[in-house]
TrEMBL record:
Residues 174-343 form the S-adenosylmethionine-dependent methyltransferase domain. Pfam families: Methyltrans_SAM, PUA_3. GO terms for biological process: methylation. It comes from the Bacteria. It comes from Lottiidibacillus patelloidae. One of its GO terms (molecular function) is RNA binding. Coiled coil: none annotated. Transmembrane segments: none annotated. This is RlmI/RlmK family 23S rRNA methyltransferase. Keywords: Methyltransferase, S-adenosyl-L-methionine, Transferase. Residues 7-69 form the RlmI-like PUA domain. InterPro entries: PUA-like_sf, PUA_sf, RlmI-like_PUA, SAM-dep_methyl-trfase, SAM-dependent_MTases_sf.
């Protein structure tokens, strides 16, 4: 394929793209109205017409496309995709060979050299998430590359972009064999039930692997654990396996009850000895406070945005208040695991929320652990916002 459009970078942004910034934004490009055809390749040039990079156009919430190379001689073709995917697989060799962990991220978009799509591996099955119509035009490159990687059982995909006004819903099967769901995968020896044929969320968020392990290995033993926004209860399962006295999982979604029971059962834990509550977390906090319930370990992992009947939550605006409610029901000397996947603020700002929450309650704290994305969620130093995950273990003094 030949380079088709030329994009001109505004002088102010030249240095940024020269040093490898990958995202095409509206602010940075002066002839932004030529950004039209999804998937079209572009050449990026400076004000003086000098070459800066090449990439493709694809509109997603983050921007208008991705720079793929700063080398003028590189051609964006099958071989280009193949090399990036092969390198990524090489990079995850330890995970591929692990018997304890059979689910991980194989290809993390721009972090592995091509923005706009990710590939996760679930014990023999690949799941490709496509974030723009533009990158979806290159799907055959990706599927061919996966086939050449060697043995796999099947490929599934999810289109996470808006095509023709609505999200296309389908079971997502692409090729190979269909999986039988639930597909049982392992993470550090723990079983998870995965459904690649359901919505965007397949049963577990792979980016929290290290945090779950830390909770199980170091923080859970003999503790009462409250897991808020618990989804399928992955943190609760790890806490229970780490010999927590009891776990309490709270999530608004009806599905969370059966899904959490399923995860406990898969790991030989009696779910009747655990609490699984389908309720708005903000209502639960009020209830717990009224009843003077206290927990040794409180896990907070809300979505960046959430709207329920009575409350709206936006991590960038409301995290401090969420923390204050959590602090209120945490035992003295207890620990809060505060997590966010909100990309609009960084770790420094997140710690600012923590500081402000404790200050307003006239309480002290210390920070015991900090996590960002694990290694398989590879990120670029030139694209800090790609490392969206921030997790802090806070001890209430
Ligand atoms: N912590 C989970 C992932 C959370 S996903 C894990 O590690 O697996 C976000 C979850 O928050 C969803 O399951 C959603 O149903 C739930 N949720 C959103 N708003 C909520 C609210 N107000 N109260 C309780 N749960 C909520």
């Amino acid at each position: 394929m030949e380079v088709e459009v030329t994009l001109k970078v505004k002088p102010k942004y030249e240095k940024m793209y020269k040093s490898g910034y990958p995202l095409i934004t509206k602010d940075a490009i002066s002839n932004v109205n030529t950004l039209q055809k999804e998937g079209q390749l572009f050449k990026l040039i400076a004000e003086d017409n000098s070459f800066l990079g090449k990439g493709y156009l694809g509109k997603q919430n983050k921007g208008y496309g991705w720079v793929l190379t700063n080398n003028r001689n590189e051609i964006i073709n099958q071989a280009f995709f193949e090399k990036k995917i092969k390198d990524a697989a090489e990079n995850r060799k330890v995970l591929f060979n692990s018997e304890d962990t059979t689910a991980f991220r194989l290809f993390n978009a721009e972090g592995d050299g091509i923005g706009g799509f990710t590939i996760d591996y679930y014990d023999g099955f690949y799941l490709v998430n496509w974030y723009s119509e533009g990158i979806y035009k290159y799907k055959e490159y990706v599927y061919t590359a996966l086939t050449k990687l060697g043995q796999y059982q099947g490929i599934y995909q999810k289109k996470r972009f808006n095509s023709g006004g609505k999200f296309i819903e389908e079971d997502g099967f692409v090729e190979g064999e269909r999986a039988e769901f639930p597909l049982i995968v392992k993470e550090n020896g723990v079983n998870f039930a995965i459904y690649l044929n359901e919505g965007a969320m397949v049963g577990v968020f792979l980016d929290q692997r290290e945090v779950r392990k830390k909770i199980r290995d170091t923080y859970a033993k003999g503790k009462t654990v409250l897991n808020t926004f618990s989804y399928t209860g992955a943190f609760s399962v790890f806490a229970a396996l780490g010999r927590a006295t009891k776990t309490t999982s709270v999530d608004l979604a009806n599905r969370s009850l059966s899904k959490t029971i399923e995860q406990f059962q898969l790991n030989g834990i009696d779910h009747e000895k655990q609490d699984i509550i389908v309720e708005d977390v903000f209502r639960y906090f009020k209830y717990a406070s009224r009843k003077q319930l206290k927990f040794d370990l409180v896990i907070l992992d809300p979505p960046s945005f959430a709207r329920s009947k009575k409350f709206t939550f936006s991590a960038s605006k409301d995290y401090k208040n969420l923390l204050k409610e959590a602090i209120d029901i945490t035992e003295e000397n207890g620990v809060i695991v505060a997590s966010t996947n909100c990309a609009t603020f960084d770790m420094k700002k997140f710690k600012g929320f923590i500081k402000a929450a404790f200050k307003e309650l006239h309480l002290n704290y210390s920070i015991e652990e900090e996590y960002s994305l694990p290694e398989d969620f590879k990120t670029m130093k030139q694209f800090k916002e790609g490392n969206y995950l921030k997790v802090v273990f806070i001890r209430k003094a």
